[in-house]
Design goal:
Length: about 290
């Protein structure tokens, strides 16, 4: 069977183009210029790349972006002061603090300080709680992106058996809540799951968010399943990026699959842009 290759580059471009159009409409109708503030502490090279990509995406969709690149020695107090200042600035609609933070800064305190109304990463406990009980809030960008990949590829979720592998706060758990919201029957597997292959074989939709190259092999996959690979790992032999799924051997068994790179990866920034626009629309009260 030839699987459908779910193209995250194409779908993320669609999402960004929709955001771009609505951003222009919002500005024209209300004068509100969407603005995202991005804070980076320290010199982590991967984080610098992520921040650069976020700024580029802001430019593309027509957002103003404010960039705060703070030295490694920035104190927690100084960082919290900056966040409070941005919380109180009506011209800022989204605040993103790039993780990981230096060891002397407590990530939880930082996340808790960002106003839930500007928490476009969807990490604040208020937003996580809102997702849990089906209220309006911001949803973590990567799992929100997976939902868009499925929906825009016309993959039915309702009533399907979905197995999510991984239970992190930023991917696995919100992913489970989103699939539940879409009426899937959801199982969350993790490092302590017994007989992982047996559990995963039940799935019509498999979502792997583990962080282990090629951990999901063909024998885990039911014939005709949809496989979404969130993992981004560096293959130590080739130096290339690879997912959590053994793509080459799994793909022939699937009805649809995401590649790595070019699958889930590009969706995260697109959904960040979408969340920030959503925040500005809510702030403006306009009907866009
Ligand atoms: P994490 O390390 O916080 O969580 C990994 C989860 O996998 C844990 O819940 C753990 O229980 C589970 N796990 C570990 N080993 C396992 C095993 N052998 N069998 C079953 N479960 C196992 O990681 P994370 O932040 O959730 O990220 C997961 C992967 O997704 C990483 O590769 C990360 O780079 C990638 N990621 C991609 C994006 C994106 O934009 N596409 C965003 C976030 C994370």
């Amino acid at each position: 069977m030839e699987p459908k290759i779910i193209d995250g580059k194409v779908i993320s471009a669609q999402v960004k183009d929709e955001v771009k159009e609505k951003t222009a409409k919002l500005l024209e109708k209300t004068g509100v210029q969407v603005c995202l503030a991005v804070i980076l502490v320290g010199e982590d090279s991967a984080s610098q790349v992520y921040v650069r990509n976020k700024k580029r995406a802001c430019e593309y969709v027509g957002f103003k972006s404010l960039s705060y690149e703070l030295p490694e020695c920035t104190s927690q107090e100084e960082l919290l002061e900056l966040i409070e200042k941005l919380n109180n600035d009506d011209t800022v609609h989204g605040i993103l603090v790039q993780m990981p933070l230096p060891k002397h800064i407590d990530e939880k305190t930082v996340i808790d300080t960002i106003s839930p109304k500007k928490d476009v990463d969807g990490f604040h406990p208020m937003n996580v709680g809102a997702l849990c009980i089906g209220e309006e809030g911001f949803v973590s960008c990567t799992p929100a992106g997976v939902i868009q990949l499925l929906k825009r590829s016309d993959i039915e979720i309702s009533g399907k058996e979905c197995v999510i592998i991984g239970r992190s706060n930023i991917v696995g758990k919100p992913m489970a809540l989103l699939m539940l919201r879409e009426n899937a029957t959801v199982t969350v597997a993790h490092s302590r799951t017994k007989d992982l292959a047996d559990v995963v074989r039940r799935a019509d939709i498999v979502i792997a968010a583990i962080g282990k190259p090629k951990a999901i092999t063909a024998d885990f996959i039911k014939e005709g399943a949809v496989v979404i690979d969130v993992g981004i790992n560096r293959n130590l032999e080739t130096g290339k990026l690879c997912g959590d799924v053994d793509y080459e051997n799994v793909a022939p068994k699937c009805s649809a699959i995401t590649p790595v790179p070019g699958g889930v990866g590009p969706m995260t920034i697109a959904m960040l842009m979408n969340n920030c626009l959503e925040s500005a629309i809510r702030f403006s009260g306009a009907d866009i």
